Amino acid sequence: MGVGRQVTISLDGVRDKNIMQLKKLNSVLFPVRYNDKYYVDALASAEFTKLAYYSDICVGSIACRLEKKEGGAVRVYIMTLGVLAPYRGLGIGTKLLNHVIDLCAKQNISEIYLHVQTNNDDAIQFYKKFGFEITDTIQNYYTNITPPDCYVVTRFITQETKK
């Protein structure tokens, strides 16, 4: 009896040489087209933007932007987090999100947030599993998709959660 091949999920940074993989994933995963600023911000966030590989196949990504708040504190905005449909439920999105949460804890960043379309129940439930909560609703946030409203979903990282 043979043992199945061990499947590995690995993360890799986004750089000039592989930015096209992020662009291709986004075109398949999301109903909006991202502009050049999105990709500049993704590259600038360094370790906070990652591609996910399932047995060496690029199947997901997380792209973040670092933002300065009043008083000089930094917070992380998750611009996109997505995994190709056939690879969902395998822990890839979890690995991507945990990577960013762990980085925030190590760098004393106390806030991570993102926008989620109000009818995206799967995404809302996914983020709630990681301690995110709905902190605001923005009407007409999206211009070319229905419904146009979104929730602001936030996780505050306190000293207790940084263990």
TrEMBL record:
GO CC terms of this entry: NatA complex
Q: Name one Pfam family in it.
A: Acetyltransf_1
Transmembrane annotation, as ranges? none
- Return one GO MF term: N-acetyltransferase activity
The answer, when asked if Acyltransferase is one of the entry's keywords, is yes
Q: Which UniProt keywords apply?
A: Acyltransferase, Transferase
Q: Where is the N-acetyltransferase domain?
A: 9-158
Looking up PANTHER family in the UniProt record yields: N-ALPHA-ACETYLTRANSFERASE (PTHR42919), N-ALPHA-ACETYLTRANSFERASE 50 (PTHR42919:SF8)
Record-given protein name? N-acetyltransferase domain-containing protein
